[in-house]
């Protein structure tokens, strides 16, 4: 299990609830990443064995691809909260401590903005209100909106494309939550949390 420790007494109220939500989401993402990594390894191993035995399973390649896609998005969300995402320190390392704090807060605010914009674009793309208004009839919805998301299926697994693509709006929401949690820490509304389950989560540059 993943446990978080704090550098001081965490503030109550909305900020405390936000940090609790982010911590719970991060714990789930940790389990999901471990599970997906194991799944990808098993799929690749099974693919090698079946190919060498002359009985390849045609859907394994696509399964591995989608598992890696979900792993990438979920892992990227967790890395955002842990501040392990890519950063450029050429400017901030020359700033005074106050300037570093301001730069870090600005960069985090852009992360939140990106998450909000991505979530909004996914809302327009998946149009849950529109598909509900069409009685969840994919063909009717596609005929009215020319949005064929709900009528398409993957090539070999024959899974609904919308189900596979669901990781994108989930990523948008999760990165927004983690970004807001980072932002309230950067603004020093609450002490910064340290996650013992992730020993490398000690990035100092603005990210």
TrEMBL record:
- Write out the GO MF terms: transmembrane transporter activity
Q: Which GO terms describe its cellular component?
A: plasma membrane
> Which UniProt key words apply to this protein?
Cell inner membrane, Cell membrane, Membrane, Transmembrane, Transmembrane helix, Transport
GO-annotated biological processes:
C4-dicarboxylate transport
- Major localization listed first in the record, in broad terms: membrane
* Transmembrane listed as a keyword: yes
Cellular location(s): Cell inner membrane
- Tell me the membrane topology, using the record's own terms: Multi-pass membrane protein
- The record places domain Tripartite ATP-independent periplasmic transporters DctQ component at 42-187
InterPro entries from the xrefs? DctQ, TRAP_DctQ
One short Pfam name that applies is: DctQ
Q: Where are the transmembrane segments?
A: 31-52, 64-84, 105-126, 162-184
Explain the purpose of this protein: Part of the tripartite ATP-independent periplasmic (TRAP) transport system.
- Would you identify the family this protein belongs to, as annotated? Belongs to the TRAP transporter small permease family.
Q: PANTHER family from the xrefs?
A: 2,3-DIKETO-L-GULONATE TRAP TRANSPORTER SMALL PERMEASE PROTEIN YIAM
Subunit structure, interactors included: The complex comprises the extracytoplasmic solute receptor protein and the two transmembrane proteins.
Q: What is the protein name stated in its UniProt record?
A: TRAP transporter small permease protein
